[in-house]
Design a protein that fits this description.
mainly alpha, Cytochrome Bc1 Complex, Chain D, domain 2, two-stranded antiparallel sheet, two-stranded antiparallel ribbon, 253 residues, disordered N terminus
Length: 253
């Protein structure tokens, strides 16, 4: 049951048939006011850490993040010791050894995130023929991806009067066509963050959207910081150029 819930996280992006998607679009995606969506915004490290926990406990059963290494988790504020413990909790296939055999060993921080399935065919077999997409850059797959993902995860509910949901489908206000072929992936209290952190559906959706946004663009903060420095440099250069021009042409008239 847990595996089916895990598949729901991003399978929602692709699960509906083209016919359903063509029927119409949902309401406008609400702005969740993520800190990183502001002009000079940064990632909320605590939210990203909680989002990683949601990914680890819910999503990672079906979805890979092959573009991330475990060592990348230090960038969201986890210590190297914490990351080592996280990596060591997985068995990673390695080899061949001296006998030419593949073997498994505890994960290292230098490893890619472990894939939940050995190959795509195994993933399809375990998920009713559907291939769970890799989540490394999934936030970039849709316009306003973080807000869309948060809305999608919180958009389940009872269909309005007059709307009939087909057998095996679920109503989602923000999914094109409003009918999606999987159950809600999150439920209140599903992940225990400890220290009193909220774990409602909305809170977990915000947190995992933050983590996936960071994973898709970890260089965002550095790029913005560089942009500020360049603007300051260009501003100073512009002032110097103007003053030089005034000096050179002061007696021209």
């Amino acid at each position: 049951m847990r595996k089916f819930k895990a598949f729901a996280l991003v399978a929602a992006l692709f699960a509906a048939s083209p016919a359903l998607a063509a029927e119409g679009h949902g309401p406008a995606i609400p702005d969740a006011h993520f800190s990183f969506n502001r002009l000079f915004g940064t990632f909320d490290r605590a939210a990203a850490q909680r989002g990683f926990q949601v990914y680890k406990e819910v999503c990672a059963n079906c979805h890979s993040m092959r573009q991330l290494f475990y060592r990348n988790l230090t960038e969201i504020g986890l210590s190297e010791a914490q990351v080592r413990n996280i990596a060591a909790g997985y068995q990673i296939q390695d080899g061949p050894n001296d006998e030419g055999q593949m073997f498994e060993r505890p994960g290292r921080i230098s490893d890619h995130f472990r894939r939940p399935f050995a190959n795509d065919n195994a993933a399809r077999s375990a998920n009713g023929g559907a291939l769970p997409p890799d989540l490394s850059v999934i936030v970039k797959a849709r316009p306003d991806g973080a807000n869309y993902l948060r809305a999608l995860l919180t958009g389940y509910g009872e269909p309005p009067a007059g709307v009939t949901v087909m057998e095996g489908m679920h109503y989602n206000a923000y999914f094109p066509g409003h009918q999606i072929a999987m159950a809600p992936p999150l439920s209140d209290g599903q992940v225990d963050f400890g220290q009193g952190a909220p774990n409602t559906v909305d809170a977990m959706a915000r947190d995992v959207a933050t983590f996936l946004a960071w994973a898709a663009e970890p260089e965002l903060e550095a790029r913005r910081a560089l942009g500020v420095k360049i603007l300051i440099f260009l501003g100073i250069l512009g002032v110097l150029a103007y003053l030089t021009k005034r000096k050179i042409w002061a007696n021209a008239h």
